[in-house]
Amino acid sequence: MGPQAVYQDDNARPHRARMVNDFLQQSKVNRTEWPARSPDLNPIENLWDELDRKVRSNRPPPRDVQHLSQMLQAEWQALPQRIFTTLGNSMRTRCVECQNSQGGYTHY
């Protein structure tokens, strides 16, 4: 990603674990400060949910990590472009809703 890249996470516990922090520091990854309990305006979360639903609907379920990886990649490629477009187009509304709630709960 290059030396100018900045890592942004949502303060979830797995992202803030000591092991992750140590790895990011050792790898000289720049991390943006993100307020705790900030509203999640990142539409990738919606994509992860969609991907999770698609993979979980597969029968039979993945038999091992390699099979899961293959399923995830196939389902990601199969996501319709309209999902990406809709999420991108929702950013203005997301920001306005966040501002109106003064950083509190939004329906996103």
Automatic annotation (TrEMBL):
<feature type="domain" description="Tc1-like transposase DDE">
    <location>
        <begin position="10"/>
        <end position="61"/>
    </location>
</feature>
<protein>
    <recommendedName>
        <fullName>Tc1-like transposase DDE domain-containing protein</fullName>
    </recommendedName>
</protein>
<dbReference type="InterPro" id="IPR036397">
    <property type="entry name" value="RNaseH_sf"/>
</dbReference>
<dbReference type="InterPro" id="IPR038717">
    <property type="entry name" value="Tc1-like_DDE_dom"/>
</dbReference>
<dbReference type="Pfam" id="PF13358">
    <property type="entry name" value="DDE_3"/>
</dbReference>
<dbReference type="GO" id="GO:0003676">
    <property type="term" value="F:nucleic acid binding"/>
</dbReference>
